[in-house]
Amino acid sequence: MKPSVFDAHVDTLLKLPDAESFLQGNKVTHVDQPRAKRAGVTQLMTAVCAEAATNQMTAFHYGISLYREIKERSSIELLLLLEGCQPLMEIENREEIVDLLSFASLTWNGENSLGGGIGADTGLTEAGRNMALQLHNAGVILDVSHLCDRSRVDLLSLGIRTVATHCNCRSILDIPRNLPDDDIREIASSGGVVGVTFVPDFLGEDASLETIADHLEHIVEITDIAHAGMGSDFDGTKCLPAGVRDCSVWPEIFELLDRRGWDQKSVEAVAGDNWRRIMMKY
Questions:
Q1: CATH number, domain at 115?
Q2: Of 141, 148, 160, which Cα lies nearest the Cα of 274?
Q3: Residue 30 vs residues 41, 86, 118, 191, 198: alpha-carbon distances, Å
Q4: 282 pLDDT band (50/70/90 cuts)?
């Protein structure tokens, strides 16, 4: 039986020229509806990373508008992640946007008024702590993926549920963008999930389906099966691991896990059931 995939992080929205290119298919993005459906994808956490754009607010409004249109028309369930919450500090209709969100990351790679991203070395500001608590109280789950070590520790200390939608393991590849084992355990103890990402620079030397599985199995080993998932970061990276073309790869990943001795229930858990479980609590 083909597992039902919940991909917890794709950056496809801001790569699309219009809704039709997602709904009908295209040859530019890693993800579109026809390919994703054939691969067994039923839910996509679509990110709007406005802070990576030259004009942040233009990208923010474009992404939100496109998300609304595609969500209404798509047979795949779309959910929304705001990757970098600085735009929320600059709009009047904040509550309206927060109501759309499932996940949120306080920063992208740099420093903003809320805290420090991977390219910084600062903790959360008072505004960042307040924003995290407000989002949590509104039912939005906080994503640590782009926080630097100091800001991530500050967020974890708040005692709220956290996730990492697209992070790998620092004990396998020691880079700031990957998570230390203690932080993975902390996320798990909050009830959260860590999604393995396919970005080659975060996987290690000779990035491939095998190294994706290595990171996934490490998360399971240091927590348990309930706290591991997938967050591909399709369309958020120019390069993909060996053997990965686009979102059509999902069945091959699960076939590899089967060859490694995984049972069907465990495969289904990391394919999507773990993400669905935490979404049902909000």
A1: 3.20.20.140
A2: 141
A3: 13, 27, 25, 30, 12
A4: low
Query: By residue range, what is the domain housing residue 76?
Result: 5-280
- 36, 67, 110, 267, 276 from 77: Cα distances, Å: 11, 11, 30, 20, 12
From the number of C-beta atoms within 10 Å of its C-beta (0-12, 13-18, 19+), residue 143 rates as buried
What's the CA gap between 248 and 106, in Å, rounded? 31
How many separate domains does the chain show? Answer: 1
User: Alpha-carbon torsion 127, 178, 5, 189, what sign?
Assistant: negative
Give pLDDT tens digits for 16-68: 999 999 999 999 999 999 999 999 999 999 999 999 998 999 999 999 999 99
- Burial track 82-96 (b if 16+ CB lie within 10 A, e otherwise): bbbbbbbeeeeebee
Q: Which tokens hold the place of 237?
A: 């990276």
Task: Give the predicted TM-score (pTM) of the model.
Answer: 0.97
